[in-house]
Write a structure and sequence with these properties.
The complex is a heterodimer of chains A (286) and B (661). Chain A has 286 residues and is mostly helical. In chain A, 66% of the residues lie in helices and 0% in strands. In chain A, helix 6 packs parallel to helix 8. Chain B contains 38 helices and 4 strands. Classes of the chains: A mainly alpha (286), B mainly alpha (661).
């Protein structure tokens, strides 16, 4: 690598002698952003333990710079000299929004919301299909709503929510579901093996439904078993089924077969896991 | 058709380079569709199913009731139990916390079994960031939907621009390097139509290394570079290994290409090897050898698969030796494999076996050392095609060769004296010295190990005493070269060891470090080696009688004292060398028992004292070493008693010696 660096520097110097020095290529700068993001993602994956209900307390948040700080710095640096293609800028906008959502900076996510939504129009592909970034941009308001609520519930330190209303979670999940339905109806979704954006959103919505179902279950806690059952009978497994079906709708048939078919792409493992879990939960309730 | 497609592809890459600003845009768009990891929202825990068991626990269990009182939750419990509808949130949560802790219950996470805790643990231990994050990755506009050729065209243009900048076009306009790109595209996009990121990564690395090598070697590239063989071999290997679920083909090949020594291998293909006309006609054979070796190592030789330096070094060796010996190496097969592949397999097995038994050897025998051993093995096989042509012959040969070197490193005190890195350098240089004598290795492959062992043991203490590594290596190389060139090689190891050990001990005892310096001491050691070579039987005899130490001590003391003559350090070293040589030529009387070994030093000292009187009478300081050697030779030819010492006899001896100088 040392030789490469030396050679690169020599060539860059030669190029600078002949003309004005060019800025680093957009591809290289964007690749750098992605590398930094992947690296910070690996460092900051937060276990979703729901730890408020267990005897071991939540691990304290480590002191230090906020999550994805280097990624955000790299995005800003690249945006300062905007890439030639506006689709690349739009991609960065969406990535920035997703960084805010995943790292719990909901205030920043909300302030980025108009830009992220506007980015969707610039993320058209040559095939006419909507790819991951466009799908994330279109569903971004629902993502913000859902993540905000989930993070607030987690941060409360409570494990049961008998007095909470799951309305906003349902709204968020339903919003994503409607977006995906519209995309599907307009035949703008690629296959899941080619683009997992829809599947990621479907699974996210399914998790919002899981929270919805949990809050409703907590609201049905009664001293009498019969009273609890009667309360739960009103909604049953409706939300879990919605989540399961939404994930299934976006999975290739090979992945929903039982037992799983060999043709199921291993890159979809996370979503297949969620589908099977939701299916088992519905069965358990039945 | 294939050629046409590849040619068109080249035209396309050339066009892409011409409009490089647009290429960047296209590539940036492509990069924007890269697979990226995204987290899913955290999942909740299921607690409602514990509600009634919790109430029952606090109602019926003594521990539960006591705990309620102890934690001041009696009222909360009552409030929850008497709530007509949903229980109050804060109270129920306080009770849940207490209950879960007392009953040691962990409510289940409403998420798949592959929990994030497990995944996080896996993420910390996965083999690469890419694999660690695979579970979290959200694909976008996956490249599998793009034709392989288009992807590789872009990858090729990107790599050339990234590596060569404005000179990228030259790489394609030069027919010598253009053929390589053509072969790459042909192998990876036309012939096999690889449809994955692994192929793209391999192509980018191969092309990047070739671009660097071409830039650095410009002006030295032959008309028909052999680089095509490398591209073809990588294509063949990737095609086959992709079918094997036990091997991560892309990781294996990309891992190889990211090694620094890979650039050197590419450079070898681009220049040295390709310059050999017999090799050029055997390009396809070379491709098969490289491909077979890579496949064999990936599937069957884990020790080398995990050691890319050893593998790349070995490939370089196979090509270099193969180019020199096309028929005996490249074209031959053994056990259904190319001979070069079979030799590497046999060698790796032998190295693995010895490494298991010898910790020091295990630490030394990696990377370049394996390649050095392989070079010796291949050259030996090439020099002795008749005697090493079956598997039955090859196995013992490889084992013997490796074991002899492992044996040289069996003395663990060497590690303390020299350190692993120094030992590695010593072994590497020793192997290089031996590679020039393959015919002798085939005859007795164990002798090299013996010489190395004796020499290292003798001279290792000098390193702690300030002798530089280069000087030490010089002595070791000299010993090995001398042994290899001597017909009596089998008998040299012992006298080498004895004489060098005695010299080293004597240097230490005499406190000559400051006087001679590192160079002087190693020069003296080399002189001793020559003296041994001049008459190995004499030194073996002296060693057998236990006289080497006394002889050497006496001569070192006399030479360094120099009879109080103002001799320079190099002159004193020369004096010692001449005395040792005189001893080799005339010292048979020592073996007869007619002389006391310690008398030689006395004689030389006295002769040097007597020589002072001759200064300006036909003698100057430059002639003193020669005079001392001549005097000792005369004395050994016609010895006389030194007890008591008669000054007149010594003076006469010196005068006689002066007449001969």
């Amino acid at each position: 690598m040392e030789r490469r660096v030396r050679l690169g520097l020599a060539l860059a110097f030669c190029a600078c002698l002949g003309a004005t020095c060019e800025k680093q290529s957009d591809r290289a700068s964007l690749a750098h952003v992605h590398d930094v993001y992947a690296s910070e993602f690996a460092e900051t994956i937060v276990p979703a333990t729901g730890a408020s209900c267990v005897s071991t307390p939540l691990p304290e948040v480590a002191a230090g710079p906020p999550a994805f700080e280097k990624t955000l710095a790299a995005i800003r640096e690249l945006q300062a000299k905007p890439p030639e293609d506006e689709a690349v800028s739009a991609h960065l906008t969406v990535l920035e929004g997703m960084v805010y959502v995943q790292s719990g900076r909901i205030g920043l996510a909300k302030s980025a919301l108009p830009d992220v939504q506007a980015a969707a129009a610039k993320l058209q592909t040559a095939t006419g299909l909507d790819a991951r970034d466009a799908l994330l941009a279109r569903s971004f308001p629902y993502l913000v709503t859902g993540w905000e609520r989930v993070q607030a519930l987690q941060a409360s330190g409570q494990c049961a929510f008998p007095e909470e209303s799951p309305a906003d979670l349902e709204t968020a999940a339903d919003g994503i579901r409607a977006e995906l339905a519209s995309e599907r109806a307009n035949e703008r979704l690629a296959s899941s093996e080619a683009d997992a954006g829809a599947l990621y959103l479907a699974t996210t919505a399914a998790i919002f439904y899981v929270w919805d179902d949990k809050i409703r279950d907590d609201g049905c806690m009664r001293t009498s078993t019969e009273a609890s059952r009667a309360c739960r009978a009103i909604y049953g497994t409706k939300y879990l089924e919605r989540g399961r079906d939404l994930v299934a709708q976006n999975l290739p048939p090979a992945c929903t077969a039982s037992p799983p078919a060999s043709g199921c792409d291993p890159s979809l493992a996370r979503y297949v896991d969620w589908y099977r879990f939701l299916d088992a939960e519905v069965e358990r309730h039945d | 058709m294939i050629a046409t497609t590849a040619e068109l592809a080249l035209v396309a890459v050339t066009a892409l380079l011409r409009y490089r600003e647009r290429v960047d845009e296209i590539l940036a768009l492509n990069e924007a569709k890269r697979s990226l990891p995204f987290q899913l929202p955290p999942a909740p825990r299921k607690v409602d199913e514990h509600f009634q068991p919790m109430l029952a626990y606090f109602a019926s269990s003594d521990v539960g009731r006591a705990a309620l009182v102890l934690h001041g939750l009696t009222q909360a419990y009552d409030a929850v139990c008497t709530a007509p509808g949903p229980p109050p949130q804060n109270e129920v949560n306080r009770l849940f916390h207490l209950y879960f802790e007392l009953a040691e219950i962990r409510p289940r996470l409403l998420a798949p079994n592959a929990s994030d805790e497990e995944l996080q643990q896996a993420a910390g231990t996965g083999p690469s960031e890419q694999m660690r994050l695979a579970y979290y990755v959200v694909e976008s506009h996956r490249l599998s939907r793009n034709p392989a050729l288009t992807r590789l065209l872009l990858a090729a243009a990107d790599t050339l621009l990234e590596t060569l900048g404005q000179n990228a076009g030259l790489f394609l306009s030069n027919p010598k390097t253009r053929a390589f790109v053509e072969t790459l595209l042909d192998e990876f996009a036309v012939k096999h139509d690889f449809d994955d990121e692994g192929a793209e990564r391999i192509v980018k690395r191969l092309l990047g290394s070739a671009a660097i090598a071409a830039f650095e070697q410009r002006g030295r590239i032959p008309e028909q570079p052999a680089l095509k063989a490398l591209a073809g071999a990588f294509g063949d290997v990737y095609a086959e290994l992709r079918k094997d679920p036990a091997v991560d083909a892309a990781d294996f090949l990309v891992g190889l290409t990211t090694e620094r020594s890979f650039d050197r291998l590419v450079s070898t293909f681009l220049t040295n090897v390709a310059g050999d006309p017999s090799f050029l006609s055997s390009e396809l054979v070379a491709r098969e050898v490289v491909a077979a070796t890579l496949k064999d190592v990936a599937k069957n030789v884990p020790a080398i698969r995990k050691d890319p330096k050893a593998l790349l070094g070995s490939l370089e060796v196979a090509l270099a030796v193969g180019a020199d010996h096309v028929d005996p190496i490249l074209r031959r097969e053994l056990g259904g494999k190319p001979l070069a592949t079979a030799v590497l397999g046999a060698l790796a097995a032998a190295v693995g076996e010895d490494a298991r038994a010898n910790d020091l050897f295990a630490r030394v025998a990696s990377g370049e050392i394996v390649a050095d051993l392989y070079a010796i093995a291949l050259r030996t096989v090439a020099a002795n095609p008749g005697s090493l042509e079956t598997e039955a012959q090859l196995g013992p040969f490889a084992t013997g060769l490796v074991t002899s070197f492992a044996g040289a490193l069996s003395d663990t005190s060497l590690r303390d004296a020299l350190g692993v890195e120094t030992l590695r350098a010593v072994v590497s240089r020793s192997l290089a010295a031996l590679a020039a004598h393959p015919e002798l290795l085939a005859r007795d492959h164990a002798f090299a190990g013996r010489v190395l062992e004796e020499t290292l043991r003798a001279v290792a203490p000098l390193v702690a005493d300030g002798v530089t590594l280069d000087d030490l290596l010089g002595v070791v190389e000299e010993a090995l070269r001398a042994s290899a060139e001597n017909v009596d090689q089998a008998g040299l190891a012992e006298p080498f060891g004895a004489v060098l050990s005695a010299l080293v001990r004597s240097f230490a005892a005499s406190g000559l470090r400051a006087l001679l310096g590192s160079e002087g001491r190693s020069e003296a050691l080399r002189g001793a080696l020559h003296a041994v070579l001049a008459n190995p039987a004499l030194w073996r005899g002296l060693a057998h009688d236990g006289h080497v130490g006394a002889v050497i001590d006496g001569l070192v003391s006399a030479s360094m004292g120099a009879g109080a003559l103002p001799l320079s350090a190099p002159a004193r070293v020369e004096l010692l060398q001449r005395c040792l040589l005189a001893l080799a030529q005339h010292g048979a009387s020592l073996l007869d028992g007619k002389l006391e070994p310690g008398d030689l030093g006395v004689l030389v000292s006295k002769a040097l004292e007597a020589a002072r009187a001759q200064l300006g009478r036909g003698l100057d300081l430059d002639l003193v070493p020669e005079l001392a050697g001549a005097a000792l030779a005369l004395y050994l030819g016609r010895p006389f008693s030194l007890h008591p010492l008669e000054a007149s006899k010594v003076a006469a001896l010196v005068e006689l010696a002066l007449g001969r100088t």
